[in-house]
Amino acid sequence: TGNPWGYGKQDGPSVWHKNYPVAEGDRQSPIDIVPHQASHDPSLGPIVLNYDKCTSIKIANNGHSVVVEFEDSDDRSVIQGGPLGNPYRLKQFHFHWGGKDCHGSEHTVAGNSYASELHLVHWNAVKYKTFEEAATAPDGLAVLGIFLETGDNHRWLHTITDVLYTVKFKGSVTDFKGFNPKCLLPSSLHYWTYLGSLTTPPLYESVTWIIVKDPIIVSEKQLGKFRTLVFTGEEEDQRTRMENNFRPPQPLKGRKVRSSN
Ligand code: SG4
Ligand code: ZN
Q1: Backbone φ, ψ for residue 215 (5° rounding)
Q2: Which residues line ligand 1 (CB under 6 A)?
Q3: 36 is known as an active-site residue
């Protein structure tokens, strides 16, 4: 469905607006977060994650990223609190990363990029019947963003990097049961929040973004394993390495970024 898009010269973020005019809309993501311009909002409560009975199902290469999908037919895995008026169900998580460790995140902080960014995508099952319906509604989705910075080895990321060889090509899928993404989060969940969009086509303006301030630390070697994935299918002649699958920051257009602390 939809038009082909990617992260290359011909099909990358700078041309997405031709097929997806909302790319130039008023609440696009990602953005550059300028900490001293964010307003502290004492009414913002803590983020609460109920991922305990978490039900991951599979890991897949969708030709744009690597995605871990969850069973979302009930409220077993939800995010609540913070800016959210009700619980939102976990649907999937995925990563964005660079070809080098100096860039790769979608959001930037005071102009600085991290090596990668993890997105946990949730939907508002209280107001909407399906993920697809929620994805087009202004309060339909909540994405929790976590920055990855290079340094020491991350204790749990190997659980994901160990299976990446099974999803090297676009369209490949592997069983991936019982993974709780809580192990990938930093100890403090202080955050910035603002109203934005999906960062890939169809770029729907439906996301309440919650960007965690503290990064997690992963090794260069661990991040390098993501770059063994390819954007292309197994039957395609020329393989293109999956890297630099991030959209750069978009205009703020008068939006306010709020800070939890
Ligand atoms: C990545 O391409 C994911 O693989 C997509 O997930 C995701 O689409 C897309 O990013 C946009 O999500 O948090 N970066 S983002 O705004 O979640 C959706 C799938 O295609 C709709 C499963
Ligand atoms: Zn994303």
Answers
A1: -80, 165
A2: 62, 64-65, 67, 92, 94, 119, 121, 135, 143, 198-200
A3: no
Nearest CA to ligand 1 atom 4: 65
pLDDT tens digits for the chain (261 residues)? 567 999 999 999 999 999 999 999 999 999 999 999 999 999 999 999 999 877 899 999 999 999 999 999 999 999 999 999 999 999 999 999 999 999 999 999 999 999 999 999 999 999 999 999 999 999 999 999 999 999 999 999 999 999 999 999 999 999 999 999 999 999 999 999 999 999 999 999 999 999 999 999 999 999 999 999 999 999 999 999 999 999 999 999 999 999 999
* pTM of the complete model: 0.98
Rounded to the nearest angstrom, the distance between the alpha carbon of 200 and the centre of ligand 1 is: 6
Residue (of 123, 2, 9) closest to 74 by Cα position: 123
Among the listed residues 17, 64, 158, 190, the single catalytic one is: 64
* ipTM of the complex in this document: 0.97
Give the ligand with the smallest distance to the CA of 242: 1
Q: Who contacts 66 (Cβ-Cβ below 8 Å, separation ≥6)?
A: 59, 60, 94, 95, 160, 164, 167, 226, 229, 242
